[in-house]
Amino acid sequence: MDYILHPTFSLMLAVLVLYTGRLLNKNIPFLTKYNIPEPVAGGLVGAIIFYIVHSTTGYTISVNKLMQDTFMLMFFASIGLSANFHKLKEGGKPLVIFLIAISGFVVIQNGVGMAVAKLVGLEPLMGVVAGSIALIGGLGTSGAWGPIFETKYGVEGALPLGIASATFGMVIGGLMGGPLARYLIRKHQLASPLNTMQRSDNSAQPLTESEYIFEAPQKVRLITADNAITTLGMFAFALAFAEIMKNLTLGTAFELPTFVWALAGGILLRNVIELGFKRPIFDRAIDVFGNTALALFLAMALVSLKLWQLTTLALPMLILLIAQTIAMWLFAVYVSFRVMGSNYDSAVLGAGLCGFGMGGTANAIANMQAITNVYGPSHKAFLIVPLVGAFFIDLVNVVVIQIILKFFA
Prior knowledge:
Largest sheet: 2 strands, parallel
Strand content: under 5%
Distance between the termini: 37 Å
Helix content: over 70%
Number of domains: 1
């Protein structure tokens, strides 16, 4: 039996999860040492508790999906609202290089998936479902493509397979990003951990103009009620735009996950206001709402993971997903890190890549925050990852999937 929490209790649970994660990270050196994000630590504890409840009573407890999705869309809208054309230009060559590299990984991820699926006796298209659809795409993309693969291409069980694979990816993406970046930083002696006084001084300083959204969530943002109301209005526009575009493009060649339209709505509104009406945008309020939405969405998403879906995966499916995890690690260490300069920024980018390459952009941001809170800021990573991971790569993913289906379906 399913029991869905009331929105009020869903919000309360999310806050408890975040404080649990903070408490765990403060008292368990392993979590801090390997830079595990607080929502991941607290969310997995909640998911395990719900798993025990499900196993002993048969009840499935979930947070309010509408509230969870709203926070997710707010997070992506905040990325769009922070992405003016000046920042896109500022990303310049590194952004293009990173996008090209990650576009190559979309092909690799599907190639690994199809090869391993065939090796273990599964339908090769199963490898695409457990490839970029579930891992680069996430839960939303899995939910959109699953029925298409089942009805149009005869891939039986594509929907539950995609959901389970995306669930696996969210967990692994949140767990591996921090350790990978730490490994690269220590191996190549790229940075030293900040001491307690440096972290305290860093947190006490207001956000500077050179720092990007989500880069330093612990820093002070000075906002007023008027700024907050105006910013909420922009968020409402971006979410309304996403809903309209989702309905208009449903079943067409332009159909995209709703969060992509929320991000696009934010970009559109931001640049119309700045370039068309010559009005300034109050970035600090976007920072506050964006970071709040990110934390609450991650807490709700992770505590709602149905871990029993992973235990019911067949051994061949587990082998496939383990192969994808290894491919992600090797690509991040030996390709992405090197092409992006083999420096501290590229190590932080690696943490972000593990996040959206295995789970989602929210995971990517949390991974990078966990690293920069310990080792210091990385402006380049927080400029590039949100744009590539939340927008450009989804467009690339759609094109790659369509090409694969054309030749292999």
